[in-house]
Design brief:
The complex is a heterodimer of chains A (about 475) and B (about 325).
Chain A: H1 9-21, H2 24-44, E1 54-65, E2 68-79, E3 89-96, E4 106-112, E5 118-124, E6 130-136, E7 140-144, E8 155-166, E9 169-180, E10 190-193, E11 196-199, E12 206-211, E13 214-222, E14 225-233, H3 244-255, H4 257-269, H5 274-279, H6 281-286, H7 292-326, H8 332-359, H9 363-391, H10 399-409, H11 413-423, H12 444-469
Antiparallel strand pairs in A: 1-2, 2-5, 3-4, 3-6, 6-7, 8-9, 9-12, 10-11, 10-13, 13-14
Chain B: E1 6-17, E2 24-35, E3 39-43, H1 50-57, E4 65-70, E5 73-74, H2 79-85, E6 86-89, H3 101-111, H4 116-129, H5 145-157, E7 163-167, H6 175-190, E8 194-199, H7 202-205, E9 211-216, E10 219-225, H8 226-236, E11 239-245, H9 250-257, E12 262-268, E13 271-276, H10 283-292, E14 297-302, H11 307-316
Parallel strand pairs in B: 3-8, 3-9, 6-7, 7-8
Antiparallel strand pairs in B: 1-2, 1-4, 4-5, 9-10, 11-13, 11-14, 12-13
Helix pairs in contact in B: 3-4
The chains are: A alpha+beta (about 475), B alpha/beta (about 325).
Bound molecules: adenosine-5'-triphosphate and magnesium ion.
Chain lengths: ~475, ~325
């Protein structure tokens, strides 16, 4: 009669769990993990990739002051979302419009943009033969000239369109800047795209909007005068995956999860056994009414739960941030898969560390074992496996051989984790996307079997080793 | 409950520690029985195999040969039953340093299935009994060596086991601490418990033990009732008296040698050592000679037969 092998497991597990929850070690790791996940959820899920690269526009302006016309060159520096850039140095140059050969522009003066991004240069009474140039290094330059027809206009304008790529698909945006002829933001101007009224510029004379794919005409109308620009919106596509938020999660999994998850798991559990051995409590534990596998199961569950709990909270927080920032929550089943697969990876590393911790005679050795385990799966395994595969004459372009290599790579839990997550992404029809998903090479069933083996085999190994080495 | 004659029965117990080149045979066939209600002093010099034996009895370690039963339960086949009836106090401290003494006790008690309600009171009472009342809510890492030993003792007693396995309970303690543990062991014996305790100092245990077993290099040299052993040591060894006094002149030394049954007189750092035939009572006569010769005496004491003496005498007597 063997009796219940897990008598006392709950007590040992609870003890382990409590010890970790109170330790600064776990707190530091969780904060680090949360910073990464929250940061990436926020950063990767910005709804548009609109660049915050600044640009410079220049407008001529004529003001009638005490009966005489005064001429100005007005510059505005902002990014493509219309956020002004104060304190940027803008230089004014003069150059000869009629000169037959090239003549270097002549520097006149320099000034910084004000709080709303504007800079105004008084150019006195310019000659028709001269034009002006505003320059911001290294952004670029913009020309100002005072041509006769200017006096028929009620405003001057600037239109730019650009295309962006984000996890949520590619889209194009248009940026419009309108100033009245006397050099003030033309807040009353109407802006049309293809004859549909879009709105008016803001207090800085800026209007920004999205641009559908294809050719468009942007028309600006103000006090009976109009200007039109032909623009082109880049091809807009949906996200690679069914939902852009899924792509963000996938990005998180593929950028740093295989690095950070094992670190958290290893750092929490590397000394689970070695610590008890070093402080002598293992001997007391071994003499108590707990079986060896009961102790090990308690250690595993306690360490695992102490990581799994905060980790799940952090993941849910990250998903909430992602949904709030992008307005598009990830597919629930995929998000659940990411969390479960991440917990799986943690479980594997906790088990590996129980094995190594049982072998380690001291806490110092346990640390070394932990570092080696991390390096092994994060650096050596994939390199060495691929290298040997190529040396053995395998070809990455032959589907059969590539599938064989992937099977070998299942022996790396980090890669298995990524394959599990990638295989679960809801894919838009026909496009496996980014080459990350090994669909067609390994079936979900094969991945699942590998995952189960990755838990069962280390567990059996851990109990076997612990039985032999516990007393040492 | 099963009724067996012996609380502990050890038969041909062997333990070989694996080592890279030369495995260590810590136990090379150990046999002994401990009767119920006995206080068994397990003696032996450093490295003799005491801790190894205790750890096997406590089911911490698996033997590599032979067997042992505790309260009729085999330590290998039914370790869980053994763990229920045994309280084990290891040689080294094993408390969780970041938990308080009380928290440590509660944990060990819960692992031993001491019921939740009474456990806390029992733990407090035990800590008080062991003189740790004030330290109960302090972290174990702040405990002194002696306090650590007391906490270890408390954890061995938390589930009120009938059999106690104590590995050098008085090791490293001051005379007061040694007396405290001696009294505690007497009390446990009074409660009908079987106590199996190890030591490498005979004098430390001879007052409490009813039986002693002496182990040397992994083999039992002798297992005997204490009174019988005392007699044997007395018979086999020379009687020695240490006299703390001013160094007597050669003439006085000569006079002492003249006392009947005295075999030798040797100067010692703070006096002289007198050796006489086994069983002889020469202290009074030697004192008289010294007093008559106006040698100032500070102390006269019969030298304790040391464990070494016991070995010598027993090995010489062909018991091994
Ligand atoms: N884990 C181990 N691995 C290898 N050898 C060991 C181990 N533990 C003990 N030994 C050896 O076994 C022998 C008996 O050791 P044990 O600790 O049982 O002695 P002891 O009688 O308790 O000594 P002490 O009085 O010093 O506590 C010694 O030679 C010791 O070196
Ligand atoms: Mg010992």
């Amino acid at each position: 009669m063997r009796g219940n092998p897990f008598v006392g497991t709950a007590r040992v597990g609870w003890m382990e769990f409590r010890t970790h929850l109170r330790s600064p070690r776990l707190l530091i790791l969780v904060v680090l993990f949360a910073l990464l996940v929250f940061g990436a959820s926020y950063g990767f899920s910005q709804p548009s990739g609109i660049s915050n690269q600044p640009f410079l526009v220049a407008h001529p302006a004529i003001r009638n002051e005490s009966g005489a016309d005064h001429f100005f060159a007005v510059g505005w520096v902002a990014d493509l979302r219309g956020v002004p850039r104060p304190g940027v140095a803008v230089s004014l140059y003069e150059f000869n419009l009629t000169s037959p050969g090239y003549e270097a522009p002549r520097f006149l003066q320099s000034a910084e943009t004000n709080a709303t991004g504007f800079v105004v240069f008084d150019v006195g009474t310019p000659s028709q033969e001269f034009g002006y140039q505003l320059r911001v290094d290294p952004i670029g330059m913009s020309m100002v000239s005072f041509y006769p027809a200017l006096l028929n206009q009620t405003f001057t304008s600037f239109v730019s369109s650009s295309s962006f790529f984000s996890p949520f698909g590619s889209e194009s945006a248009v940026a419009v800047h309108v100033m009245t002829l006397d050099g003030y933001p033309a807040t009353g101007a109407d802006i049309y795209i293809d004859d549909n009224l879009q709105g008016q510029p803001n207090g800085n004379g800026f209007y920004g909007g999205s641009l559908p794919p294809g050719d468009h005409v942007v028309r600006i109308s103000y006090r009976g005068y109009e200007e039109s620009y032909g623009t082109y919106g880049g091809p807009s596509s949906g996200p690679v995956y069914e939902n852009g938020a899924d792509a963000v999660l996938l990005g998180i999994v593929f950028t740093f999860m295989p690095l950070i998850l094992p670190i958290v798991a290893i750092a929490v559990s590397f000394d689970a056994i070695a610590r008890e051995r070093a402080q002598g409590s293992l001997e007391l534990l071994l003499a108590r009414r707990v079986r060896r596998e009961g102790i090990l199961a308690g250690k595993f569950l306690g360490a695992f739960a102490s990581i799994a709990l905060p980790m799940t909270v952090v993941f849910l927080g990250g998903i909430a941030i992602l949904a709030a920032v992008s307005g598009r929550p990830p597919t629930p089943s995929f998000a659940a898969t990411v969390i479960v697969a991440s917990l799986f990876l943690v479980a594997v590393y906790v088990l590996l560390m129980l094995i190594l911790s049982s072998l380690a005679k001291s806490v110092g050795t346990a640390v070394v074992f932990g570092v080696v385990a991390w390096l092994f799966f994060n650096l050596f395994f994939a390199f060495v496996a691929t290298f040997l595969f190529l040396v053995a004459g395998g070809s990455l372009t032959s589907p059969g051989a590539y599938g064989a290599l992937l099977t070998v790579l299942l022996f790396d839990p980090n890669l298995l984790y990524q394959m599990l997550v990638a295989a679960a992404v809801p894919v838009t029809s026909g496009s496996p996307g980014l080459g990350l998903v090994p669909t067609g090479y390994l079936s979900i069933a094969q991945l699942a079997v590998a995952a189960i083996l990755w838990i069962v085999v280390p567990w059996l190994l851990a109990t076997w080793i612990f039985r032999r080495k516990a007393e040492g | 409950m099963r009724v067996t004659a012996s609380a502990i029965r050890v038969q041909d117990l062997r333990k070989r520690y694996p080592a890279f080149r030369k495995p260590v045979d810590a136990l090379a066939g150990v046999n002994f029985d401990v009767a119920r209600g006995d206080v068994f002093g397990f003696l032996g010099p450093n490295g003799a195999g005491k801790t190894t034996t205790l750890r096997i009895l406590a089911t911490v370690l698996a033997p590599t040969g032979g067997g042992a039963e505790v309260d009729g339960h085999d330590v290998v086949r039914d370790p869980m039953a053994v763990r229920s009836v045994v309280g084990y106090m290891p040689e080294r401290s094993g408390a969780y340093p970041l938990l308080t003494g009380l928290q440590n006790l509660l944990y060990w008690g819960r692992l031993q299935d001491v019921d939740g309600g009474g456990l806390r009171e029992r733990a407090r009472a035990l800590l008080a009994e062991l003189g740790l009342e004030e330290a109960a809510d302090r972290k174990a890492k702040t405990y002194s060596h002696g306090m650590g030993k007391r906490l270890l003792m408390a954890q061995a007693l938390i589930h009120d086991p009938p059999i106690l396995l104590l590995d050098e309970p008085a090791g490293g303690l001051d005379p007061q601490g040694i007396r405290f543990f001696r009294d505690l062991v007497r009390k446990l014996q009074g409660e009908g418990k079987t106590v199996f305790l190890s030591s490498h100092i005979l004098s430390e245990v001879e007052q409490t033990c009813t039986t002693v077993g002496i182990i040397h290099r992994g083999r039992m040299v002798v297992v005997e009732r204490m009174d019988a052993l005392r007699q044997r040591i007395g018979e086999g060894a020379v009687a020695r008296i240490e006299v703390e006094c001013d160094l007597p002149s050669p003439a006085v030394m000569q006079a002492i040698l003249g006392v009947p049954k005295v075999r030798a007189v040797t100067p010692a750092p703070d006096g002289i050592v007198v050796e006489a035939e086994a069983g002889a009572e020469v202290a009074d006569e030697v004192t008289r000679v010294l007093v008559e010769n106006r040698v100032r005496i500070r102390a006269v004491r019969p030298a304790q037969p040391t464990l070494e003496d016991a070995f010598m005498s027993l090995l010489g007597g062909g018991t091994a």
